[in-house]
Amino acid sequence: RNIKSNSYAKRTHFLHVVPQEAQDIGNLLNVTVHLGRNILYNPGVMDTTPPPKPVSIAAIIVPVLLGIIVILVVVMIIVCKRRNKKEETAVAYSANPVNNYHGNSIRNNERLPLISSASISEQLSPQILQEMSSVLISRNKLMVDKENIIGKGHFGTVYNGEYITSEISKLNGNPIKRKVAIKTLSKIEDTESVEKFLKEGLMMSDFHDENVLTLIGISWDDDGAPMVVLPYMMHGDLLQFIRKPSNNPTVKDLVGFGLQACKGMCYLASQRFVHRDLAARNCMLNETYVVKVADFGLARDIYEKEYYKPHEHAGRMPVKWMALESLQQQTFTIKTDVWSFGILLWELLTRGVTPYPDVDAFDVVNYILDGRRLRQPQYCPDPLYELMLSCWHPLPETRPDFVTLVRKIEQIYGEIHGVHYPGSQSYNYCLDVNYINVMDVHPYPSLVRTSESRSTGGSMVQDVFSWSVKKTISHKS
């Protein structure tokens, strides 16, 4: 079109791009620009690649959701398998030491006899049957509450029950009912296991001491299986009692528990009975907080993690409670019980800490041979810790006897001030926390053989004896 401006006019041209014989070179095209009829420009090439498509949100979310769903399905399958496995195992075993004694949460199960229960009594030895005759209780005098389980292990189950005694009440003239604990076998595998079970019960029938658990009697269940009847211990075993946070005993209470256990062991020693498994888990507390030394036989099941195999061909043993000679030579005497009693005192003053918490069970022997012992617990009186160390002397004959231990603990107990349990909430020396053994103590010389002692042919026992004599002489001088 024509545009007038001042005295002359300008002609304006509109440009248009016409690709002429465009040459395709991949995604690029040669471009030519024609200006009028006589001018030709070749500015370059034009990219014909289509722009990228926008990424869909669904394309991101869907794979992520599918991955999460797959993971959840796998986790649910694993959890279900483990739950099924635990339910199968729970029929035979439960390992909660705090709840097992009053454990209504433990599942009930039927006994699994592998031999005929009806014929068990016929297969027992005449000696066992004769011993049972004096403690036999008629089945109709026992009421077993099989829905109320006190404790359960691999081989035994203990139920709540009532025993109708021959005593007559002066109030109503009816027979007096006594609450009892009734121990049974979970699996009756053979006659030998039944006889062992009965012998453990019969052994307790000879004990008559305030601080020792005594057998009430033995009975036969309706299906012919044996039942051992024991006194009901309201507060369970001593270990779970001192570990329970709501129980708040004083140092005097804890030492008092130890004194009662020592009196029970003093009685057993007078009967020439070697316990072999003295520990807090094997002491019971009745309704008046009286300690009863016991060997339920169930502790080995419930506190299974406290028992180890010293070597491949040995049975499970309470390694961390055993004396040095028991670990090395499988020797058990009253003096090895003294060693275990020292560990029991340490358990009490630490509110149930497992001995040698930082030492593997397989290293306990070397730990003791090196002269090391458990460290003094917090709040433990010095004289009591010295008594513990004397219980752990490497020479058995140098350890105190239980008569001496009772006398010394009575003296220590009388010098401690504190409120008895149960009492007011303002306890003296209250143990609110557990103490953990951290540092090593070396009260005795190392018994680890050196190259020099091996070359001279000296023995470990001789080395300790020489050290003991030198120490005695130095004290006298």
Automatic annotation (TrEMBL):
PROSITE patterns: PROTEIN_KINASE_ATP (PS00107), PROTEIN_KINASE_DOM (PS50011), PROTEIN_KINASE_TYR (PS00109). ATP binds at residue 183. GO terms for cellular component: plasma membrane; receptor complex. It comes from the Eukaryota. It is a single-pass type I membrane protein. It comes from Ciona intestinalis. Residues 144-413 form the Protein kinase domain. Its main location: membrane. This is Protein kinase domain-containing protein. One of its GO terms (molecular function) is ATP binding. It catalyses: L-tyrosyl-[protein] + ATP = O-phospho-L-tyrosyl-[protein] + ADP + H(+).
